[in-house]
Specification:
Residues 57-123 form a coiled coil. The protein is mainly α. It is built from five helices and two strands; from the N terminus they run H-H-H-H-H-E-E. The relative contact order is 0.04.
Length: 162
């Protein structure tokens, strides 16, 4: 009975040494492949591990579950990126409003100083070098180190009659 069973189990190829050798090679190759996958999973980070095993599934349900988890992770990352973009946009908007307010304030100050200069210019003595504002503007020099304008010294030109 045992002899018959050995002949029946495995069919005609039960005693075929080439076939047994082929099965051993396939098993060895599968074991090596499995070991490489395990090593790759251990060496990779969490994000890449999903992609390494993306195509290795026992069933369709397992594949669907794995891809659903991956989709959920990507959706979480997408939502996080979208909220960060909204935060940056709102921060940019606040800075823009602040800059526009500063520009408006500086323009008002400039207009005030211009009006003051226009009023005061008529009161400056004609024999003074400050009587011509356009000439003063041309003679002014910006000092980078001090961070201020160097204005020419006040000179009163006395003319003597012969």
């Amino acid at each position: 009975l045992q002899m018959l069973e050995q002949q029946v189990v495995g069919g005609e190829q039960a005693k075929n040494k080439d076939l047994k050798e082929k099965h051993k090679r396939r098993k060895k190759y599968a074991d090596e492949w499995r070991m490489q996958l395990v090593a790759a999973l251990q060496n990779s980070n969490e994000d890449n591990s999903d992609w390494v095993l993306l195509n290795v599934y026992d069933s369709i349900q397992e594949e669907v579950r794995a891809k659903s988890k991956l989709l959920e992770k990507m959706q979480k990352k997408l939502r996080a990126a979208e909220t960060e973009i909204k935060d940056l946009q709102s921060e940019f908007e606040l800075e823009k409003i602040d800059y526009l307010g500063t520009i408006r304030r500086l323009e008002r100050d400039l207009m005030l100083f211009q009006q003051l200069l226009d009023r005061v210019q008529s009161l400056i003595r004609r024999d003074c070098n400050y009587s011509n504002l356009d000439k003063i503007k041309r003679e002014c020099v910006w000092d980078e180190e001090a961070g201020c304008w160097k204005i020419p010294e006040l000179v009163i030109q006395k003319t003597s009659l012969p």
